[in-house]
Design a protein that fits this description.
The chain is an alpha+beta fold. It has one domain: Glutamine Phosphoribosylpyrophosphate, subunit 1, domain 1, CATH 3.60.20.10. The protein contains four helices and eleven strands. The strands form three sheets. The chain has a five-stranded antiparallel sheet, covered by helices on one side. The protein has a four-stranded antiparallel sheet with strand order 10-1-2-11, with helices on one face. A two-stranded antiparallel ribbon has the order 3-4. A hairpin with a 2-residue loop joins strand 7 and strand 8. Helix 3 crosses helix 4. The protein is globular and about 45 Å long. The two termini are 29 Å apart.
Length: 193
């Protein structure tokens, strides 16, 4: 697992992540892994992905092959993108969509946080898309990060600093998150945040 945070404030949006990889009791710090990125750039969007390491290869391939068919500019655009993408994930990337017997929708197994000039969006595995106005976090250290952001959001003006403090808290208390941190910043369009 990982911790990924997004913060919107003062006309900017920041996405940040830890860089540690973990499988069972095996911990792989960033200095040992050539590619330790958990955030992928697509046009003017940054996508932070948690879960299986294979998700990163899948998303990189998808955004390379289907660049003109993907849009992350609104909740509706993101939902429609992932609805369109679902059969491709199953047929071309062999995503195992089975989970529980009585689940209401077929899963795509992905959990992604998106930050772009249009906002801060959380995409969950059943294609639920939520937009957040101030901050959000996903991953194994999300509760620590959310608590930290709640405590400092109104006290600090710099969204990058807020993101780094939240990630540092997650790395301090969550065994699946580790330093160093990576952050990306975008300028928001038409927003009061």
């Amino acid at each position: 697992m990982s911790t990924i945070v997004g913060v919107k404030k003062n006309g900017l949006a920041v996405i940040g992540t830890d860089t540690q990889f973990k499988r069972g009791s095996l911990i792989v710090q960033a200095k040992y892994r050539k590619s330790h990125k958990k955030i992928h750039k697509f046009k003017d969007s940054y996508l932070g992905i948690i879960g299986s390491s294979a998700h990163h290869n899948v998303i990189e391939s998808v955004i390379s092959k289907y660049r003109s068919d993907i849009c992350f500019n609104s909740v509706k655009d993101i939902f429609e993108t992932f609805l369109w993408l679902q059969p491709k994930l199953k047929d071309e990337y062999f995503v195992n969509t089975s989970e529980e017997k009585d689940q209401e929708y077929e899963s795509n197994q992905l959990h992604i946080l998106v930050v772009n000039p249009y906002g801060l969006f959380d995409i969950q595995s059943y294609r639920e898309v939520a937009e957040f106005s101030r901050f959000w976090s996903i991953g194994s250290g999300d509760e620590y990060a959310l608590g930290a952001m709640y405590a400092i959001y109104d006290k600090l003006d710099n969204p990058r600093r807020i993101a780094k403090i939240a990630l540092s808290a997650a790395c301090e208390f969550d065994e699946s998150s580790g330093l160093p941190l990576l952050c990306h910043t975008v300028k928001l369009k038409n927003t009061k945040q």
